[in-house]
Amino acid sequence: MALEITDDEFDDLVAEALDRIPESFWDKVENVVVLVEPTPPPDEPDLLGYYDGIPLSERDSGYAGVLPDRVVLFRQPLIEMSQDRDDLAAEIAITVIHEIGHFFGFDDDELDRFGWA
Question: Are strands 49-52 and 32-37 parallel, antiparallel or unpaired?
């Protein structure tokens, strides 16, 4: 049986995940927006989220006047892989931290070593 959760409840879990990120990290995060989409692209149906932007590690003095970077989470695959609300909250937190890790310039292998894959 599929987990049933409203969009508002899902968004609350995303907000809780964002609140778990230490302030010392948030002090360095700028020009980033977190979005939730219902489904991933058809060619990547299991994609939980992605980071789209210029990582902090690649920004230089010429970085200015650009649109915000985006962290996008996909509601459907996150819900489908979760057994209950607690499981979903954990999966959302892992995905949020993973994608914010990309903002800082970490690649998937590094994030895997940290336990955030």
Answer: unpaired
Q: What is the pTM of this model?
A: 0.90
User: Which pLDDT band, with edges at 50, 70 and 90, does 1 fall under?
Assistant: low
**At residue 83, what are phi and psi to the nearest 5 degrees?**
-85, -35
In a domain, 62, yes or no: no
Q: Tokens at residue 27, please?
A: 């002090």
Supply the range of the domain harboring residue 86. Answer: 7-57+68-113
Pairing of strands 69-74, 49-52: antiparallel
Structural domain contains residue 63: no
Does residue 23 contact residue 102 with C-beta atoms inside 8 Å?
no
Assigned token pair, 69: 């970077």
